[in-house]
Each structure stands twice: as C-alpha cells, then as structure tokens.
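Reopening this one. Same input as before:
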Amino acid sequence: MLSLIISSVAVLGIGAVYGADMFFAVAGQTALKRTGNAALTEVMGRLHETADARMPVFIMLGVLSSIAGAVLHFGMSSGWLSIAALVCLLVWLAVYFTVVQPVNRKLTQAAVEGSVLPDAKELQTRWDSVIVLRALLGAGALVCSLLAAGLAQ
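Same output, byte for byte:
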C-alpha cells in the first residue's frame, strides 16, 4: 500500500509539471510568437509570478516521491525506475534554474512594475529554447514513475 501511495504522489506531482510544459511546447510557444512585447511582458510576467509561487510544490512532490520509491525498492527494478525518474527531474531542475528562472524573474519584475521589456521576444525565445527538453524530461520522469508503480505492486 505504501508503494502505491508513493507512486501516486510521484505521478500526480510530475504530471502537473509535465502537463504545463507540454501545453507550452505544443500551443503556448506558437501563440506567444504572435504577440507583441507589451502583451508578452504582461501575460507571461503574471503567469510566471503565479506559477513560480505555486508549481514548486508539484516538482518537489515528484522529487521526494522518487527518492522514497528508490529507497523503498532499492535494488529492484522499480527502485531503478524511481532513480531514473529522479534523474530526469534533477536535470529538469538544472535547466529550470539556469535558463528558465532568470527569464521568469525579468518578465515578472517588468509585469509587476507595469513596464514593457523591449527584449521580451528574445527572452521568450530563450525560455522556449528549452521547453521541448523540459517536456521530454517530464515525460521520462512520468513514464518511469508509472512503470515503477506497476512493478511495485
């Protein structure tokens, strides 16, 4: 029963982050290319202001549950899958902190101040440059967590 709870928490946490990244990889990226600097600064700044405050709980649920699954099933296939999910999430976090978060901060600050960033499009292009990678890492973590859940039963 503990394995099922841990796996469910991992899947729900990772799934929330994966879903957001997949949305932007498939739809958001294209839509944002059609906006001007003012709209992009305001909308993405406000989205990041909210998401950066609320989304960390989901990624941390995924990370902590993956660690728990690895410890609980150490040496078994499900434990290795939990480790693989954790690796995907740690790489996702590295990409987030090095590429995404600096862009988020600039857009958020501008939106809060009510200013328009003249380089908003370039910032968004930088953000977009890793969204497919983030979605793939999320998919990898999600698949590994789902497989670990199935094997842990």
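So the earlier flakiness isn't reproducible anymore. For the record, The chain has one domain: 2-152.
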